[in-house]
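Batch 3, record 17
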Amino acid sequence: MTLAVAIFAFGVGIYNAAGFLKAGKSHVVRPNQVRAPSVPGTLYVAQAGAIYRFRNGTFTQITTESGWTQPAVSSDGSELAVVRRYENWSDLYLMTPSGHLTALLTHDHSPQMESNHWVFYPRFSPDGRTLFYDFDPKDPFNSYRVDLAIFASPSDPSSHESVQWTNPNYYTGGDVYPSPLAGGGLIYTKYSIDDQSQVHPQVWLQSRPGSTGFALTDPALDCGQAALSSDQKLVAMVCTKGQTQSTELNVAAFDPTTLTLSTPSTLVTGELVASPVFSPDGKSIAYLAPATPGGMFQLWTVKSTGTPAPRELTSLLGLDSTSPPVWTAG
Amino acid sequence: MEISPVYMPRASIIAAGFVLAGLVGLGAYFFPLFRTAASATPSSGTVAGAVSDTISNLNPIDVAPSQPFTVLLLGSDDDSKFPADRLNTQSMILLRVDPGSKQATMLSIPRDLWVPIPNQGMGKISTAYQLGGPQGAIAAVESNFKVHIDDYVWIGLNGLVKFIDHLGGVDVVVTNPVMDDFYPSDLSSTGNPYDYYRVAVLPGATHLDGVHALQYVRSRHGDLRSDFARSERQQQILLAIKAQATHLNVADLPTLAAAFNGEVKTSIRLDRLRQLFSIAGSFGGSNIHRVVLLAPYTSEGSAAGQDVVLPDWSAILPLVHQTFS
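Prediction for the assembled complex:
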C-alpha cells in the first residue's frame, strides 16, 4: 500500500515538475510587502489602483486599490491631488498625505457614455494656488475626436473656474503632462503627426493660456514626460528617437530667462524609462523602468549627472508607469 | 514440454511502476496539447485548429528553418456580432523572416485595400478570409502581392488577450494618447456585442495586459491615421510579443493550447513553432523592418459605394519584390 502511494506521488510529482519548466511570469507583490533602500525625503507611487508612500525604506499604502493614480503634491506638502480612474471616466480628489479625502474637485461621470470625461496628470503650480490637469473637452461637431487639453483651476476646492491652456493638434490624443513654471508659463508634451504618418512628441512651452507656444525639443528626438527640478533649472525627459521598444532618459539645462533648453545629455539608455521626477534638491532623478525586458516597472534612481550607474530600488513591484512618482522633502 | 513461468524480479516491477507513473504524469501535463491538436487536425498536430492539410499551396516551414520563409498573420473580430464562418480580417500582416541574415520584415496590408479576390471579383481584401477562409486570404495576398506564403497564423480577439496574458503582459512605448469614446464592448460572450465603452491608453513606456494591449492595437476612432495607426500599433505589439515569447519553452505549450481553445489557427506545426521560438531571440529591433502601405503606395477612394483604400501596384510591387523575394 505504501509503495502504491509512493508511485502515485511520483507521478503527481512528475506532473508538477513539468509545470515548473514553464517560463516564469513576473512575481508581483504589493509595495508594503517589501523594503527598499531608503532615499532622502518621501516618494509617492501608484500600483494596481492604490497610492503608496515610500519613506525610510518602507512603503505605506495610503489608499485602497480602487483606481487611484497620478498623485501630485502641493508646494507646502500639505495635500495631494490624486486621480481616481473608473472604467469610463476619472475624477480628481484632494487628500492629505496620509490618504484622508478632503475634497472631490471634478464630477466627470455621466449616464450617457460619450458625455463622460477624463481628467489626468494633476500638477500644482509652484505657488500652490493653481492646479493644472488634463481634461477632454468635447468636440460638438465630431464625437469621435477625443483630444486631451491642459486646463487650470484655482486649487481652492470652492472655486469652479477653469481655463483651457492648450489647444491640441486634432486627432493626436492631445496635450499631456503639464509642468507649471514659476514665472507663470507651462511646459508640457504636445504631439504632432508628420507627412510620413509618424507621431512626434515634443516638449512644448506656453507662456499664457491659449497662446501658440513653441517647441523646446526637436521633433526627431521624440521627447516627452518632461519634469522640472525644484529650482526649474533642469529638465528631465524621456526621448525615443523613433524607437518604439526603448527609451532614453535625458537631462537638459533650462534657461527661464530665454526659455531655451540646452542640448540634452543622456543619463540612461537601453531601458524602458518612464515618468522621471527630480529629488527635492535636484541632484537625483527617480524613474520607473523594468529590470528585465518585458518585466514589470520598478523604482530606480540616478544622479542628475549620470554617474554612478542607476540604482534599482525595487525588484518585485508592478508600479503604474503612467503615474509619475512624486518626490518631496518631508 | 512444460514451460515454467517467468517472474519479474520485485525490483523491476517497482521500477516499472515508477516509470509508468512518470509517463502518466507527463501525459496528463501535455494532455491539453494532444487534445487540441487531435480535435483540430489529427494528421498534422498543430497548436490549434490548423488546416494546413487542406491548403495545397503552402510550403510548411522546414524542420531547421534556415531558409527565408513568409508567414501571413491574420486577426479577426470574432465576437458574437459575426457568425463563426463569416469573419473578416481586421488585421493582415505579411511577415518575412530570414534566419540566415537575421533580418525580418513586417508588411501591414490595409484591411480596406480594394483588390481582385480570386474567384470572387473585386472586394476589400479583408473579405477574402470571410469568403474563403485561410486559403482565401492566402490566395488573395499571393495573387495581388506576387509573393509565396509558407504558413499562416489566425488569431481572434480573446486569443490575443489570452496569449498576452499568458506571456505575463508586454512592455511597449505608447506613442501618443490613444483615446476612443466608441470602443466595442464585445470581448465577453454575454451582454450586447454592439455596446461600447471609453478607452484612454496613456502615453509612454508601459506594461500592458491582454485587454489593454488589445485596446491599443484595435482602437482607431481618435487617431488621425485611423486604420494605418492601428497597423503600426499592431506591428509594435508583435515586436513586444516576440520579445516576451523568447522566454517560452515546450512546457508552456499545453497551457497555451488549452487557453486558445479555437482562438488561434495556424498551419505551423508544433515542432516548427518550438524552433521559431528558439530563433526569435536572435532578431533584434534594428533587424526588423516595419512597412505600412501609406501614400504613395495607397490612396483613399471609393468603390462599389464603399470607402476603400486604392493600391498603386507600380509602387507596391517593387517594394514587395525587394523585400519578399
